[in-house]
Amino acid sequence: MPEGPEIHLAARLVNRVAAGHSFTGRVVKSAVSTKNPEVQFEAASYRVVAEARGKEMKMVLEDQAKVVPRTEIHFRFGMSGCFQLTPASQLPKHAHLQFALATSPAQVLSFVDYRRFGRWEVGGAWGRDRGPDPVTEYQAFRANVLTNLEHREFAKPVCEVLLNQTFFNGIGNYLRAEVLYRAGVQPFAPAREVLAPLVEEAAPGHPDLLHLCSQLFQEVLDLQQGKVYETKFGVKKEAGDKEVKEEVSHSEDDQTFGSWLRCYYKEGMSNLKDGHGRTIWFQGEPGSLVRRGARPTKASTATKKSVKNKRYQVPQSGGQLAKEEIKEEVKDEVDEAKDEVKQELKVEDLKEEVKKEVKTKSKANRTKTTAGSKSTKTEEVKLVTDAEKPTKARKGKLQTKAETTDVPVKRSRKSRDQ
Length: 418
What we know:
By secondary structure, the chain is an alpha+beta fold.
């Protein structure tokens, strides 16, 4: 899964492409990307600006003629999302959102996602469940962690808390391993105990765990390449500031990143599953919160075999493919997708509950009104009946009237026989 540095590098790629070219036409969405919305934007000439924050990226589209309203698109890259610049005649199979450049021959900048877990939202905002960026918003990032140490999340192992994007936006599996290793922190130590002493700033030249989150993040950015996720095409400047397509060698790219890694998937390092089923790499003792009976295993060159899997082409350090990590990342992304579905279902359930409650109250009000109406009618009938009942005085008058009139009085049969 792309981590913060890969998202920032994607934003850099978009901005490098946009610096030398304008875009044209409409934004095209692939037919198979059914879970993502259409982007209703079309202009003869428009500019693009990208910005990254943790594990999210924002693209702003602006019509140069100022006719079409400014449009923002927020991306979450999922497990395999990336941006690629290709000739229009060689679009990647999974180019799910396409931005055409005003070039000849025609070129297209595409959001490519062959596993289709990536998401975008038109006119949205940065995720409310995502904290400040460790690089571009370092002070806010640090404060967000240290002012929330009483949160129950910080009772968990520090290796698990480092993956919580509410506090560590952009930190993923390889960054947490490197941060903990270089900070000399046991991965299963209680997070609150590890972080509480950091309320006081560390001495210069001695970066603490929070400093390392930002520092290592930046180091990967300075490599100009992160962990590769099928980013086949890059862009570079040549003489005359001419933008050209360049195919990046996965083996060379991964060697540079692999040489930067000191802990993650490195020979001799131990690993364990955390509470979310993700593998954490470390050296030494795991920490007091490690689950009972857990036994660390060590990486060796014999266990790192190349896995040929056409669908899950995720290069690892040294140019190797790790089958175990592929499974972990698939599981992690599926779990994240399930969580999103659960949230949607909760919202739908809440809506249904509200509807039922409104319906029940409405029915109760109608019943109450009907009961009140019946009671009123009964009282009215009673009043009318009581009004119609003849009093004793009235009975006497009626009898006298009957006797004095010529109207025949109906008698009973017995009376007639007599």
